[in-house]
Amino acid sequence: MALSAIDEALVRRYDVNAPRYTSYPTAAQFSAAVGPAEWSAWLARTRGDQPVSLYVHLPFCKRLCWYCGCNTRAVNRREVISSYLDLLLAEADLVVDAAGGPLRVETLHLGGGTPNMLTPNELDGLIAGLRQRFDMTSLTEFAAELDPEVLTPEWIAAAGELGLTRASLGVQDLSPDVQAAVNRPESFESIAAAAKALRQAGVTSLNLDVMYGLPLQGVDQVLATLTQVATLRPERIALFGYAHVPWMKPHQKLIKDAHLPGPRARFAQSRAAEAFLIEAGYEAIGLDHFALPHDGMAIAHHSGRLRRNFQGYTTDLAETLVGLGASSISRTPDGYAQNATLERDWRAAIQSRRLATARGVALSDEDALLADIIERLMCEFAVDLGAVYAKHGRPYPANASAPNLSEFESDGLVTRRGDLVTVTDRGRPFVRAVCAAFDPKLETSPGRHARVV
After folding, report:
1. More confident site: 280 or 75
2. DSSP letters of 202-270?
3. How far apart are CA 182 and CA 252, in angstroms?
4. Tell me, what CATH number does 272's domain have?
5. pTM assigned to the model
6. Enclosing domain of residue 15
């Protein structure tokens, strides 16, 4: 797919380093100023009658995929996993104690890593332990991220019995050359079998993750993968651009820089993929998600209820997110709190009967306002600045203006009518750069964030 001269010029100009804006302030602003005392105080202010979301991080995989940006490691010793599960429930006890009683959980998400590294018995014990500690009588969604190559029928059956409603399968790319270049061999047959079994077990929303910008990957490989994936008709497809950040993830150094597509090639891959998915009946949701019209994400998008958090785009409206496990991030209206990233540090904290919070950021009134502006741009590609100010109980200054958007406007990426800022169709691939214009805390050093394109 050849790029027009205009698109090539836009890629050169706006392929900058910028956050993914899964939060504001971003994780780059987290510091040790937020620790166990702050997180405990924030939990104490949560209301027992308000729903919360629960995220459980399981940092174990059967194999280490070289592209991965998650906090995980390859492990084969069962005792390592079983002792981790015991500590997860001990951490849950600490959270409940700090909150002054059981929190009412409406959504549960198992992430990683590979949650299906747990045996069926371990999965059953984990969910039973969480149900003993939290009020999960009104649970509406139970989701898990899964690796189809190590997913067994027994695991699927156990998860179905426990009420799994949504599952995400990692596909990335089905080309053998690309798979070899990132150390992730898997077959379409295993993915198709997993999808069929999950549906039979009661999963009503299936997501498949696909990536572009991988080593040795071109438009042909991306479209060939999507052609096969689309035959399964997953309710959602997440199309992520590979973020090459070897300074943060040393195992990515195993990927040869010379094999990586450049910005123009990456842009061509993403545009071709989007056109294919729309033609296949999917709706474009935000920056990198696609959903069938009947799926809850498409419905939330049309009703203005789409949200964004550390898992990406979501339909979850809860103001409080409780994260358990190493590196997990929690959120309340007071701020963000992240557990120790190193598993050994997290284990040491929980074993000492103290919360494992290592860093975070407290939200000021200005932060909360800017977070709303950036989230609306990321989710809806438009924001009514006057309405956001009014929502936060602040008058919109008569002489207020958006940050300097003139370059975006002159290039046709943004329009401005009164208080309404809209990202155009041409500007959507560069929405992170537009959001960055609203971010007074942005640090743009090359080693801080991945590239926009």
Report:
1. 280
2. T--EEEEEEEES-TT--HHHHHHHHHHHHTT--SEEEEEEP---TTT-GGGGGS-GGGS--HHHHHHHH
3. 9
4. 3.20.20.70
5. 0.93
6. 1-24+364-453
